[in-house]
Amino acid sequence: FYPQGAFPTIPKAREPMQRIRILAANAGALDGRLGEALAAHSPDIVALAGIGPAQALRIAGPRAMRAATQDWNEELGGLAILWKGSLAVASLDRFDFGQRREACGALRISFPLDGRYVAVYCAKLSSDVAAVAGQQARLAALIDSARTPTLAACEGVVTRDGERWSRCVDAWTIAQRRVITLAASEDAGFAVHRAFGLAPGSLSVDRRSQAGPLWHCSEEFSVYETRSIALSGAPEHLVRTATLSLRASAADENVAIAL
User: Fold this and answer.
1) Between the ranges 104-113, 191-200, 246-255, where is the mean pLDDT highest?
2) Under a CB-based contact definition with an 8 Å cutoff, are residues 70 and 97 in contact?
3) Per-residue model confidence as pLDDT tens digits over 75-120
4) Is 153 exposed, middle or buried (CB count within 10 Å of its CB: 0-12, 13-18, 19+)?
5) Residue 2 half-sphere exposure toward CB, CA atoms < 13 A
6) 46 falls in which pLDDT band (50, 70, 90)?
7) pLDDT, tens digit, for every residue of 199-219?
8) DSSP labels for the chain?
9) What pTM value is reported for the model?
10) Which of 183, 110, 189 is nearest to 146 (CA)?
11) Given pLDDT bands bounded at 50, 70 and 90, which one contains residue 32?
12) Residue of 88, 160, 157, 167 whose CA lies nearest to 129
């Protein structure tokens, strides 16, 4: 017997959320070694700093990927986002942070994933301490003003004592599993200190972004694994990967079927 107006319900079985793998690096600093990382990890999305449009297309073409670029008339000074052709990118935006002497700005794409639109940024901030705070605030405003799931690969971001600079958090810090891959003959202690952002003489400042772009993600994501990868010949410039998926939305979690 059921109370008047009530019906038995069963939870609707949810399909598993789609996992994607993302990779970020400074292509210019890796001196041609990026290919081995792409081959080893087969990312769905790649965010690159220190790269020109021609090089981005040379990387994307053989891998059946598409590319968006932002260039400041410097062959190795631009940004690029690459993605697998199966992702239907819906929009592309470019932002210039106004530094005449240095390539600084952000590139953004968006695409649908599990019924929601995801924004992906690739950003490079100035090495000038006086300019980086304003640029970082502008990037945070772009991210925070759009309440959509967001991934951001950022080079040059500075944080102190783990403080949040936007609604996105460092994917490395919230991952369920963290992996450090050493280059041949690399000092393990130094690699661990670098991966966790421990810089001699300045433990309160996160300096990992100086070794290449860091992935940040909004709270809509679950991060299963992140990797900090050093390649032979350029161990001081890291490749960062993350495997993640969107969290099920509150609406999905409470769907029921009336019998």
Assistant:
1) 104-113
2) no
3) 557 999 999 999 999 999 999 987 666 778 999 999 999 999 999 9
4) buried
5) 7
6) very high
7) 444 433 455 666 789 999 999
8) ---TT---EEEPPPPPPPEEEEEEEETGGGTT-HHHHHHHH--SEEEEEEE-HHHHHHHHGGGTEEEEEE--S-TTSEEEEEEETTS---EEEEEE---SSS--EEEEEEEEETTEEEEEEEEE--S-HHHHHHHHHHHHHHHHHS-S-EEEEEES---BTT--SSS-EEHHHH-SEEEEEPPTT--HHHHHHHHTT--TT-TTB--GGGGS-EEEE-TTEEEEEEEEEEETTEEEEEEEEEEEEEPPPHHHHT-EEE-
9) 0.83
10) 110
11) confident
12) 157
Tokens of 206: 């996160």
- Amino acid residing at 3: P
Distance CA(171)–CA(226), nearest Å, equals 7
Place of tokens 């600079």: 165
